[in-house]
Design a protein that fits this description.
Number of domains: 2
Order of helices and strands: EEEEEEHEEHEHEEHHEHEHHEEHEH
Strand content: 15-25%
Mean pLDDT: 83
Largest sheet: 10 strands, mixed
Helix content: 25-40%
Radius of gyration: 27 Å
CATH superfamily of the largest domain: GroEL
Low-confidence stretches: 1-6
Number of helices: 10
Structural class: alpha/beta
Shape: elongated
Amino acid sequence: MIIFQVVPLLIGNFFTGVLQSYNLFLVPALAPVIYMIRDTATMTTTLVSPYILVANKKIDNLETLVPIVKAKLDGPVLVIANDFSEVVVSLVTQYNVAGKTDITFVKSPRFGEKRLEFLKDIASVVGTNVVDGDVGFDTSLGRAGRVVLTRDSTTLYDGAGNTTKRKAELQKRLEAEENDFEKTELQQRIAQIDGKAATIYIGGYSEDEVAEKRYRADDAVFACKAALRGGVVAGGATTPLDLAKFLPGTAILKKVLQKPAEILLGNVDLSVNDFELGNGKGVDVTTGKKVDLFKEGIIEPAETIETAIKSAVSIAGTAITMKVLVVEEEEKDD
C-alpha cells in the first residue's frame, strides 16, 4: 500500500492542474540538533541535494569528520548518528556560520538493536551503508533530492537508494514473525520506506477559477486522508438512511438522518419515495437512475458521516439546554 503522507497545494503559472509525486521517508522522532536550525522563524532547516552519512556511533571528535570536509562536496552534508559531543557541535556550528562548512547533525532515535535496524532503513532509502566505525566517513555517503528538518521530525524526499532488497528482507521477517507488536512495527517500517509525497499545482484562466479549483482540491485531499484513517461508506446520502433504520419511528434523529437524501434528490426533482435506497444502492443524480454506489465510485469517508452526526447531536443538545435559539427571519415575497 502506498501512503501519500504530505500533499501540499500550490498555485501554478499554467492553465491546468499538475500532480508531481515524490518518494518520501518521514521520521517523526528524528530531529536536528537545535543549534543547527537555519530558519528560526519557522524552526525548520531545508537541505537541497544533500550528502547523507548514517553512522551507528557517537561523533565525539572533529577528526572523524575531516574526510568529509576534505572531500569538498558540492552540496550540504547531513550526518545522522547516535549522538554528538558538545565540542563537535560547537565547532561545526561556528564553521557553518563562517561559511567554511555546511553540515547538519541529527540524532538517531531508539536504542540498541532497534536503532541499528532503523538506521539500516534510512541507509537503504538514501543509497548508502551504515558506518559502524571510523572508516567510510568519506565514501559511505548517500544522497536525497531534499531534506526538511523540523524541531521534532526529519523528512527525506527522493532518496537515491534502491529499497527493493530492504523491503523484501522486512517482508520476509514479517511473514515469519508471530508477535503481534513486532508485526505491526514491521508493517509500519515497510510502509514508511515505501512512502510517497505529492504536490498539486493548481492553475486556471482567472483568480476565481483558481480559487474554486483549489477549494475542490483541498476537499479531495482531506477526504482521501479521512478515508485512509477510517475507511469509506456508500455516498449519495444513503448511509444516514441505513443508520436511521435502527432507530424507532418516532425518534427525532431518525427524521434528521432521512433529510440529506430528501434534499439531495429534491435538488434534481426526484423523490426518496420513488426509490428503494440503502445497503449500497442509491441514485446517481446526474442520470436519475438507481445504481450500485460502490461500483460507480460514489463513496465518502466514514469519518465524515460520524463527525457530522456527532456535531449535529452536540449542537442540538446545547440548544435544548439554552432553551432559546437566534435565527434569521426568512424574507417573504410580497
